[in-house]
């Protein structure tokens, strides 16, 4: 009997009961809320797949016909055919040498023509399905306007690529000033600029940082996140309903606020850090 692997694929199919035109009545607004969970069974064949991190380090192809799953500990990428529901092949990447992938990759992003962005803490890179590194992205190689190499910027935090326009985006955090910014830089030259996100300065109240040299670890209950959509970049956080929207074609930044109906618009710091 063939071995079977079960993947719980999100997003879930959500369905809310009730008519939106009806007048809202007091009481439990989630009383008629229902949801369904789809399960997809994938045949691994002769391959083994490690689901230690579930699908946290995975991405889809643009046509949604393939799922690429990375296990960072052993540097194995599984190519999963979603039409045939089977593992088509696995690629073993190197941990040392000129084609070495980042130590314990944080995330994976599928780019055009079967290229991938593997994100690490101190270095990242673009790789192909031949296990070759086609572009190294090292922290010390990045040059951003107004930022010196001595500043403690986390260049790779939330690093995302726009392969069509050959751009990289991230959300650097300046430890000294406790400020978040949006970094926009060219994939080839690794040069670019910093765009300040001043309205997100208060989010540093929800973070604890331990520093040792140029490395640091942190705990955060209001993480700042970055999402890309066509020519737009959205910067948002678990700590506020407000967002930043950056249009890189127009080089314009917009700050938008929203009012929640059920919860506060932003978190309140529980204690003082002073």
Description:
It is globular and about 50 Å long. Strands 13, 14, 15, 16, 17 and 18 form a 6-stranded mixed sheet that branches. The protein has a 4-stranded antiparallel sheet with strand order 5-6-7-8, with no helix packed on it. It has 274 residues and is mostly beta strands. It has no helices and 24 strands. 0% of the residues lie in helices and 45% in strands. Strand 19 and strand 20 form a beta hairpin.
TL;DR?
This protein is mainly beta.
Radius of gyration, whole Å = 21 Å
Let me know the number of strands.
Answer: 24
Structural class: mainly beta
Described by strand count, sense and barrel closure, the largest sheet is: 6 strands, mixed
> Count the helices. How many?
0
Order of helices and strands: EEEEEEEEEEEEEEEEEEEEEEEE
Share of β-strand residues: 35-45%
Oligomer description: single chain
Shape: globular
Mean pLDDT: 83
Amino- and carboxy-terminal Cα gap: 62 Å
Provide the helix percentage. Answer: under 10%
Q: Poorly predicted ranges (pLDDT <50, ≥5 residues)?
A: 1-21
Attribute tags:
disordered N terminus; 0% helix; 274 residues; mainly beta
Break the fold down into its secondary structure elements and pairings:
Elements: E1 5-8, E2 13-16, E3 33-36, E4 39-42, E5 58-60, E6 66-71, E7 76-81, E8 86-92, E9 107-110, E10 115-119, E11 123-128, E12 133-138, E13 143-145, E14 160-162, E15 167-170, E16 173-174, E17 179-186, E18 191-196, E19 207-212, E20 215-220, E21 224-229, E22 232-237, E23 240-247, E24 252-256
Parallel strand pairs: 13-18
Antiparallel strand pairs: 1-4, 2-3, 5-6, 6-7, 7-8, 9-10, 10-11, 11-12, 14-15, 15-17, 16-17, 17-18, 19-20, 21-22, 22-23, 23-24
């Amino acid at each position: 009997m063939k071995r079977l692997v079960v993947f719980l694929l999100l997003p879930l199919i959500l369905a809310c009961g009730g008519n939106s035109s009806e007048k809202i009545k007091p009481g439990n607004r989630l009383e008629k809320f229902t949801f369904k969970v789809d399960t997809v069974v994938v045949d691994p064949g002769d391959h083994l797949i490690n689901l230690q991190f579930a699908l946290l380090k995975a991405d889809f192809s643009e046509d949604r016909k393939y799922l690429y799953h990375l296990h960072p500990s052993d540097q194995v990428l599984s190519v999963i055919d979603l039409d045939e529901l089977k593992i088509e092949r696995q690629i073993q990447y190197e941990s040392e040498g000129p084609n070495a992938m980042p130590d314990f990759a944080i995330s994976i992003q599928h780019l055009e023509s079967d290229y991938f962005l593997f994100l690490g803490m101190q270095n990242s890179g673009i790789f192909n399905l031949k296990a070759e590194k086609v572009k190294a992205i090292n922290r010390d190689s990045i040059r951003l306007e107004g930022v010196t190499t001595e500043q403690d910027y986390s260049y790779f935090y939330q690093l995302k690529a726009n392969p069509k326009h050959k751009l990289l985006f991230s959300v650097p955090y300046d430890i000294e000033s406790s400020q978040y910014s949006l970094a926009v830089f060219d994939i080839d030259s690794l040069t670019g600029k910093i765009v300040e996100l001043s309205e997100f300065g208060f989010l540093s109240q929800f973070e604890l940082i331990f520093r040792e040299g140029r490395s640091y670890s942190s705990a955060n209950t209001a993480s700042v996140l970055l999402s890309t959509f066509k020519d737009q970049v959205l910067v948002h956080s678990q700590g506020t309903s407000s967002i930043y929207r950056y249009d890189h074609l127009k080089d314009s930044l917009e700050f938008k606020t929203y009012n929640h109906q059920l919860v506060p618009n932003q978190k309140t710091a529980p204690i003082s850090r002073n």
